[in-house]
Design goal:
Blueprint: E1 2-6, H1 17-27, E2 30-34, H2 38-50, E3 55-59, H3 63-66, H4 71-83, E4 90-97, H5 104-124, E5 128-133, H6 136-143, E6 152-154, H7 161-169, E7 173-176, H8 184-191, E8 198-200, H9 220-231, H10 235-250
Parallel strand pairs: 1-2, 2-3, 3-4, 4-5, 5-6, 6-7, 7-8
Length: 252
């Protein structure tokens, strides 16, 4: 099993990060830790050194951060990503998040930053990890203009079935998180999606499958179980295919 998207660098793990990583290493083959800010990118690189061969970094800038951060900070993040380009397995997370964001100026700012990160992935021919919320179609339309990005992942996908089908038709990937354990909409979406275009993730510390318990990478097992249940397949098959997908995409 591989957790293809988590945030072990977040402060929620400061008190017991090693325990969380011990549990992850007992169950999983690898985790992909996604940088979401300048500080997050720096912390992710440190964790890569601490857990080399198990934790793999992606570096980016979350759209919700992009809509309010000073451009100097974003430029610094971009410069540091370029300086560490040989250490990362993908660019991101980056994208568009229009949830509760009706300010046109902030949306345009997100688009501008997203475009810059798309161009970075295109230039260095690296996979791109996309965060798209209430803007999945627009994000898809933007990335389809670029041809040198080897793999594109819509992480924690929660858009409609039509856009999901378009994503699959383009040969891109949908990553499903532990939210599928309790979201009927996500469960319906997964039913007709091919495993060949799926990844599994927790997006921890968010979206715990267990009420009142902070999410963590080892809980990606619950995603495997739920996909297997929805598709009436053995869990071992879901595990094997989604792990193979992650290894291919991230080159690990």
């Amino acid at each position: 099993m591989i957790d293809s998207h988590c945030h072990i660098d977040f402060k929620e793990y400061n008190k017991n990060r090693q325990e969380v990583m011990d549990r992850a290493q007992q169950k999983l083959k690898a985790i992909i830790n996604s940088g979401a800010s300048l500080g997050g990118n720096r912390r992710t690189l440190k964790l890569m050194d601490e857990y080399r061969g198990f934790l793999y970094p992606t570096l980016g800038f979350h759209p919700s951060n992009a809509s309010k951060a000073d451009y100097n900070i974003i430029e610094k993040a971009l410069d540091e990503i370029k300086q560490n380009i040989d250490k990362i397995v993908a660019v991101g997370e980056t994208g568009l998040d229009y949830h509760e964001l009706n300010n046109e100026k902030s949306r345009k700012r997100q688009i501008r930053v997203f475009k810059t990160f798309i161009e970075l992935a295109d230039e260095y021919e690296l996979p791109l990890v996309i965060h798209a919320r209430d803007a999945e179609k627009e994000a898809l339309d933007m990335i389809m203009k670029y041809s040198s990005i080897p793999n594109i992942i819509f992480h924690c996908y929660g858009g409609d079935a039509i856009t999901a089908s378009r994503i699959v038709d383009e040969g891109y990937y949908l990553s499903f998180s532990t939210i599928i354990c309790f979201s009927k909409d996500h469960q319906l979406l997964i039913k007709d999606m091919p495993l060949s275009n799926m990844l599994t993730e927790t997006d921890s510390p968010y979206l715990s499958p267990f009420k009142g318990v902070r999410n963590e990478p080892s809980f990606v097992e619950e995603v495997i179980k739920k996909i297997a249940e929805i598709k009436s397949l053995p869990g071992s098959k879901v595990d094997k295919i989604t792990e193979k997908n992650a290894k291919k995409i991230f080159g690990i």
